[in-house]
Amino acid sequence: MAAKNKEMKTNVMRLLEQKKIPYQAHFYEQEGEGAGSDYGRSVAEKLGENPAQVFKTLVLQGASREYAVCVIPVERELDLKIAARCLHEKSAALIPVKELLPLTGYLRGGCSPIGMKKRFRTYLDLSAKDFPEIYISAGRIGAQVSLAPGDLLRITGGEWAAF
Prior knowledge:
Elements: H1 11-18, E1 24-27, H2 39-47, E2 55-62, E3 67-73, H3 80-86, E4 92-94, H4 97-104, E5 121-125, E6 134-137, E7 143-147, H5 149-156, E8 159-161
Parallel strand pairs: 3-5, 5-8
Antiparallel strand pairs: 1-7, 2-3, 2-4, 6-7
């Protein structure tokens, strides 16, 4: 279907196909683990896309100890006070990187809001409405999928948020 090589197909792509959600697979060369504040911008450059249209997945834990997923443009930093308000929490913090894999099943730089080990409340930044499609991680470093923002909300059970 959308992935050219079945060996390169990720679980995210399989889930999208299972739910009959149209997407396009995109692959790029990446050295090492996804890290650093410019990693997302680097991905956008490698894809040849506008960084405002490429989104990153951040996992937070609120004061209630509940987890939530925030999907925001790679070029932006998440204001934790605003995020806490959107999540209806007194406070929120990014989870430590060492907790990402056991909690979600994904490594840093390859974390996708689709197909986590457990379904968490998911919030997509309102800026995604500006684009017919956005890019998110396909579940591993070096792979992205593009899809309609509404389809991302549908498959994750997510909501819009003004981060």
